[in-house]
Amino acid sequence: MRVLFIGDIFSTPGMKVVLAYLQGSRQxxxxxxxxxxxxxxxFGITRxxxxxxxxxxxxxxxxxxxxWDQAEALELAEExxxxxxxxxxxxxxxxxxxxTFEARTGERITVVQVMGRVxxxxxxxxxxxxxxxxxxxxxxxxxxxxxxxxxxxxxxVMLYHLAGRVSAVIGTHTHVQTADETVMRGTAYVTDVxxxxxxxxxIGMGFEEVHxxxxxxxxxxxxxxxxxATLCGAVLELEGGRARSIRRLRWPAPEGx
Length: 257
Ligand SMILES: [Fe+2]
Ligand SMILES: [Fe+2]
Hints:
The structure is a single chain. The chain has about 260 residues and is of the alpha/beta class. The protein is built from six helices and 13 strands. The strands form two sheets. Strands 1, 2, 3, 4, 11, 12 and 13 form a seven-stranded mixed beta sheet that branches. The protein is globular. The structure holds fe (ii) ion (2 copies). One fe (ii) ion (FE2) binds next to loops.
């Protein structure tokens, strides 16, 4: 099956480019996963954004450290397993950290998210959380893990930890697409799938305010960048629960490609 993973959708420009891409290309994929933690102006996701993505053909939306920035997400997570938060939150956290769905091919696919702990909030162990999810699953089934983490090392070690046991380990959160896509023992991997939004920005926010914060230590409020947006994603070809290939996607293609 062919799976599309869309990187962190950032604010209105990110939503627009993702919806435009899916309008023309959704039928090329058997299953679509999107990270939506920044859909609402950079901070979380609302019911409206979630519904727009679902209507456009996104099967599952994953969250991240911004997952609960909008209170509506807490309600949504209780209502639907199609909004997946990190599996390594403490027991009792609303929502699910993994859920299994049926792709267009009729095959089963499980989507998992784990969140890193290096340079991020302290959570439960993401490695053991991933192990716990896999314990209950048949080995030949497709499993895509969104590793939402800051440190490249932690993401790559997650690949090593899960290689041969899942279909893909896809990095999110740092918002800049990395060029290190690979397949290790049947597990597709990229350190960061990139952000879907305005690339000429401070990882989604306008330069001016972030510059003032860095250079003059002014308490300027972040504002989402406006302008030309690009969808960043990864296309996975899966067979019998293992990856045959991973291809990075940027749409529209940057000038010069
Ligand atoms: Fe993000
Ligand atoms: Fe994040």
